[in-house]
Please model this.
Amino acid sequence: MRRRARHGARLPAQRRGPGPREALHRDGHRGGATPGRGPRAQQEGGGAGSRGAGTDRTSSRIRGNVRRGGVGRTQGAVLPSAAGAGWCRIIQRSGAFEGRTYVSQLPELEVLRKDLERDVVGKRVKEVLVHAAKLGSRHVSESGFVKALAGQRISAVSRRGVHLLFELEEGHALVVRLGASGALSRETASEKAGPHTRLIATFTTGGSLHYVDPGEGGELAVLPMAEIATLPAVSSAGIDPLAETFTWRAFGEELVRRGGPLKRLLVDPTFVVGLGDLYSDEILWAAGLSGRRPAASLSSQEMRRLYRALLEVLHDAVKQRTADGLPPVEEEDFEESEQGDWLKVWARETQPCLRCRQPIHHDEIVEGLHAYQCRNCQT
Ligand SMILES: [Zn+2]
Model:
């Protein structure tokens, strides 16, 4: 059986030098990870010059996956979860973080959208197979959904918050909200459905699009474009920093109006869509602010710093994910990858802060919310 080059929104792997074993479990490694082999570990333990070598190896490994699978990076896709659309699947360690949690990850969703845009725009759907997919309330039957999609030409792939929209003819769109563990992949037309395949759409020009989700939470619907704004997750969505222009003043005013600790605000999809634990931690580190800080206590200079960090971290992540490819969904591919070496603070517990060299901590900073941060330079 050929190896699929499906990519998903798994969290970046721990790539650090010999460190606490529990950290490996947190990221879902099943004990098979090789500590210290990543570029980050080499950089810190091996001195100058090792970064480039490690990066090259990462790239070739990702390209290698593509070759083995016979498919391009664009075939991989990950999808968001129900509650505000989770992206990266994070396997947390014990205690309050036991089990798997899913968080919104806007950059991965945007990279996926661009990949799909290149791949399927202009194609006409030939046949549609649906199996055990959760269909939007508009569809009373699978046959109604199939009828609405079959024969339609895809004119664009856009995004509304965490929903991917395959724009169709006559003002309709196939709306896909990926389940937390969902993935979209481009396959050959003859590729058979697996046990968790929810949707197969073949194209008249060959090839097909598969939506696979071993979990629950994803949803599909064909809707008039005008109705999409009324979907609850869309109508309640906050700022989309990758799609909207907004000033630091407007951002700051909303921050103060809402109040509360910064960490809680940043992961609230009604304030900013698609930020999970990972990117909220990266943004706070870049801004030099603690996630515990009450929004109302920020000076205007600090608000500007947070605003800049928000935009820079997300745009940089899109660039990184575009260059590296989305993290693989398959466990074995994930363990081989060195995704996430470019992150500054996330999953770097006990490592020296890249700014002040003090150790990074992973604490519960607000009730129910943990964060990786530097206690010294994030104030
Ligand atoms: Zn620091």
Remarks:
- Residues 300-324 form the longest helix (25 residues).
